[in-house]
Design a protein that fits this description.
Layout (H helix, E strand, L loop, with lengths): L7 H5 L7 E5 L13 H17 L4 E2 L22 H17 L4 E6 L5 H14 L7 E6 L24 H10 L28 H4 L13 H24 L8
Parallel strand pairs: 1-2, 1-3, 3-4
Helix pairs in contact: 2-5, 2-7, 3-4, 5-7
Length: about 250
């Protein structure tokens, strides 16, 4: 079910255990070869495929395209919400549907920079409803839901998601090849080890002068189709766990 197409009485009639999914992404630079809307396009497609598989068992909100992208602001075109503002926006989405009586809520993310505020939003909202034992509040980034994604296609060489990389470029080649510019001539930028396992504060120029991380020259539409299918299946599997949750257990 698509929230944008429903009337309020239709929403009011839904079982309050229906999982509600809020896809979120970004509008930011994606190297010299990819469109600024990449994250939102890819998140939208993963959500669309997952919704197609789940049908009336879930309620899908429209994609929120503005994200927390301050680390990309050195590159023209990037739009970004202030971190605290973005955290409150995500928390507000959850609070809206808690007020409507729904109990199983998922923020489904398609941009790495949203990860920290997204996790914090879920944590803070849960603390606002400490006495509730029927709330399931989740935040998940779609590529983390498919740990075997590197095996989705035999030609994949990257083992993890980068930025405007083999993976993202492949998926965009599958969806909108006309928006990809000279990826075969775009050089490779390594992932490196930024003082791991510590978490380093960074901006994109700290890592990449051109704004990408990974190997876009290896991309193909065939790899993109395999990855999109793998990521959508990961979302479906998580939502099935939400559906099966007994309403109070810690595990699910």
């Amino acid at each position: 079910m698509l929230l944008a197409e429903m009337t309020w009485p239709e929403v009011a009639a839904l079982p309050r255990e229906t999982p509600v999914i809020f896809p979120v992404a970004a509008l930011e630079q994606h190297g010299p070869h990819m469109p600024l809307f990449t994250d939102s396009v890819l998140m939208g497609e993963v959500a669309r495929r997952a919704h197609e598989a789940l049908g009336s068992r879930v309620l899908m909100a429209p994609l929120q395209w503005l994200g927390n992208s301050h680390h990309h602001l050195d590159f023209p075109g990037t739009l970004s919400a202030q971190p605290r503002l973005y955290l409150d926006l995500l928390g507000g989405l959850l609070e809206n549907f808690i007020a409507h009586g729904f109990t199983r809520l998922l923020i489904l993310n398609g941009h790495g920079g949203n990860d920290v505020p997204g996790r914090q939003a879920v944590f803070e909202v849960r603390q606002n409803h400490r006495q509730r034992r029927d709330l399931l509040l989740l935040f998940a980034t779609y590529w983390n839901l498919a740990p075997m994604a590197a095996n989705a296609h035999p030609g994949l060489e990257q083992t993890q998601m980068g930025h405007a990389c083999e993976w993202e470029t492949s998926m965009m080649l599958r969806l909108h090849p006309q928006w990809v510019k000279n990826h075969a001539q775009t050089g490779s930028v390594g992932f490196g080890n930024p003082f791991e396992p510590a978490s380093r504060g960074w901006t994109m120029p700290d890592r990449s002068a051109e704004g990408h991380v990974g190997q876009p020259s290896l991309a193909s539409a065939e790899k993109g189709e395999a990855l999109l299918g793998c990521f959508a299946q990961g979302v479906v599997e998580l939502v099935n766990r939400m559906l099966a949750w007994d309403g109070s257990a810690w595990e699910g």
